[in-house]
Amino acid sequence: MAGDSRGAILEFIEAAPDVVRVEEIADAVRLHANTVRGHLDALLAAGRISRVPDQRSTPGRPHWLYSATASDSVRELARALEQALDRAEAPDGARLAAATWAEAGPEVAAATTPDEAVDAATEALSHHGFDAVRNPVGDEITLRACPYLELVDDHPVICDIHAELLAEVLKRTGQPVSVERLDVFPRPQMCVARLRRPDTEPVRVVELAEPEPAAARTSSPASRAPFPRKKR
Q1: Are 67 and 13 a contacting pair, CB within 8 Å?
Q2: Rounded Cα gap, residues 29 and 25, in angstroms
Q3: Given a cut of 90, is residue 1 above it in pLDDT?
Q4: How far apart (Å, rounded) are the C-alpha atoms in residues 98 and 93?
């Protein structure tokens, strides 16, 4: 715990009878909401709290709802992260840590369709602190608001754990959906998980030729061959 402010935030969340929003926490501890968010990110990384998106019916991105993580399984999740970082070079370290994370998350039931499997995986990633959204096709999951963002540069194995976690959840659904790859930060603070599933193969693919270089299209008149004259 870093300072009295973070301790006060944790104490308020633990005492709350239900999930709380950032604004409620900021009012209670008399700090700016942005300052509170920084402390919340640290508490998430330490496994002391968890968050889920608010299921709002109005347009716009959902608010995060925070609660204390008092269960032994979540504390085990935090210990698994520490162990994975310490054993970053171990071949199976990320996979074993991901299995522990999966146990700490929501129970994964057997899915009846590949779409249900992708929804279950998206829910699991949201449970672990991400702003996770699947695309309409169901072959990609976009991950924002990584709760471990500040640790990734020094410990890139965290991204391996997340990829393995996603693969483990999909495996538990019993559907033929798997992780093809995890694109880390194709845009700042955003990752994209590319999924492989047999029911999204396109009927037809239209491929366009590479565009002609601009220099070739704007060559000077002197460099162009003259039009052939018509014979009379």
Answers
A1: yes
A2: 6
A3: no
A4: 9
DSSP of 192-228, one letter per residue?
A: EEEEE-GGG--S----PPPPPPHHHHT--GGGSPPPP
Reported as type and span, the H/E element at residue 175 is none
Q: Any idea which of 32-36, 79-83, 111-115, 134-138 has the lowest mean pLDDT?
A: 79-83
Distance CA 172, CA 109 (A): 7
Single-letter residue type at 171: K
H-helix or E-strand containing 98? Answer: helix 93-104
**d(Cα 127, Cα 118) in Å, to the nearest integer?**
14
Query: CA 137 to CA 153: how far, in whole Å?
Result: 31
Sign, Cα dihedral of 84, 90, 96, 102: positive
Q: Each residue of 64-114: pLDDT tens digit?
A: 889 887 544 445 555 555 555 555 445 566 777 677 667 766 788 899 999
Q: Give the three-state DSSP class for 2.
A: coil
**175: alpha, beta or left? (left if phi > 0; alpha if psi -120 to 50):** beta
- Residue 179: strand, helix, or coil: strand
Q: 212: exposed, middle or buried (C-beta count within 10 Å: 0-12, 13-18, 19+)?
A: exposed
> Which domains are seen in the chain, by residue range?
1-70 (1.10.10.10), 73-201 (3.30.1380)
The 3-state DSSP class for residue 48 equals coil
User: What is the token pair recorded at 150?
Assistant: 């500040």
pTM as predicted: 0.57
